[in-house]
Amino acid sequence: MKESIRLGAAFAGVVVGAGFASGQEILQFFTSFGLWGIAGGIAAMFVFAFIGMNLASIGSSLKSKSHKEIIYKICGKPIGLFVDAVITFFLFGVAVIMYAGAGSLFEEQFGIPAVVGSLFMVVATMVTVLLNVQKIIMLIGAVTPFLVAMIIILAGYSVMTADISGTEIARLAQEQDAAAPHWLLSAFLYVSFNIACSASMLAVMGGTVKDRKTAAIGGAIGGGLLGILILLVNIAMMAKLDAVGGAAMPTLALAAEVSPILANIMAIVLLCMIYNTAVGMLYSFTARVSEAGTARFKAYVFLFGIGGFALSFVGFVSLVGTLYPITGYLGFALIGAVVIYWFRKVAAGARVSSETA
User: Fold this and answer.
1) 292, 203 in Cβ contact below 8 A?
2) Of 36, 94, 98, 309, which one has the fewest beta carbons inside 10 Å?
3) Given phi > 0 = left and psi -120 to 50 = alpha, else beta, which region is 111?
4) Which domain holds residue 45?
5) Where is the chain membrane-spanning (predicted)?
């Protein structure tokens, strides 16, 4: 069970940076739908747990070192080529977004030039990725409980000090930019782009677990934890929607509602979230094009890190607004393939049981 919890925490830690870092993601995908956003969060929890369980299980059985083995296993070659391309592109794209986000955070909260913040994050992730994958998993998993604690504190404070009516919440929610026209589609889109973001790292993490059942439980735990975090952040946003509705980084605005000191602490927490995801994305992308641990792999880590730094100058907001929705729709191909694979596996198991009966 300990190994399952470790895997689940690491899975959640990889997703947290891309899905929670600024708070804009939760605001647009869930809070903008008012009370229906809570239903969306519950739906997202179950889908996260289901997909996480299956991807980790398959990764364990294949002892995968990149997402390629899993993708071609569940999708076949024609669709697998497409899904592989989408995931590989998104891995690098999210790393670039994380570098840009770090720059924005350094500039907005600490008054440090964005270029310095982005460069700091690039160097930190490159150094980490040059360690072995077990150390990466330990680093990612170790930070996750602290991130969860901060979110619980902010959610509790927001609910206890809320002075906004349900009618006002509904009105303000309608004024927010929504990621999709319907709350359920929005929830699925959110899961989709996050799964596209985390599938490769989850495959690698699942591949390090010998027992398939242990890996499956770990994936389910990680998905459940992500669902809880969605609900907590969403409720906190709703309770303080009058204060955070127009903020670029709503989670930071929530912390500022408590005190400037907590805002600084939260800024550091957000940097940890961004770091978690940037490490996972850079490692997974590089492992897809070169075998981990080789001299070529190390050279590519440096090359891709510098390339990502250059592309981060496009800007955090522009990158998020363009890349996430597109990848969410494209990522439905992967989710659909996992669901079909699961049904086939269940059907095969049922046939074996009937034949032996």
Assistant:
1) no
2) 36
3) left
4) 2-356
5) 33-58, 79-100, 112-131, 138-160, 180-204, 216-241, 261-285, 297-320, 326-343
What are the backbone angles phi and psi of residue 315, rounded to the nearest 5°? Answer: 115, 140
Asked if 228 and 94 count as a contact pair (C-beta separation under 8 A), the reply is no
Rounded-to-integer distance, Cα 257 and Cα 332, Å: 37
pLDDT exceeds 70 at position 15? yes
- Residue-wise pLDDT for 188-205, tens only, equals 999 998 888 777 777 777
Q: State the CB neighbour count (10 A cutoff) for residue 349.
A: 10
At residue 304 the predicted structure's pLDDT band, cuts being 50, 70 and 90, is: very high
Report yes or no on whether pTM surpasses 0.85. no
Cβ atoms of residues 96 and 329 within 8 Å? no
Give one DSSP letter per residue of 316-336, joined into a string. HHHHHHHHHHHHHHHTHHHHH
- Cα separations (Å) of 206 from 3, 59, 63, 190, 272? 11, 5, 7, 22, 23
Q: How many domains does the chain have?
A: 1
CATH code at position 134: 1.10.4160.10
Per-residue model confidence as pLDDT tens digits over 284-298: 788 878 887 788 998
User: Long-range contacts: 335-341, Cβ < 8 Å, 24+?
Assistant: 335/47, 335/51, 335/188, 335/191, 335/192, 335/195, 337/74, 337/75, 337/79, 337/83, 338/50, 338/51, 338/54, 338/55, 338/74, 340/74, 341/54, 341/58, 341/73, 341/74
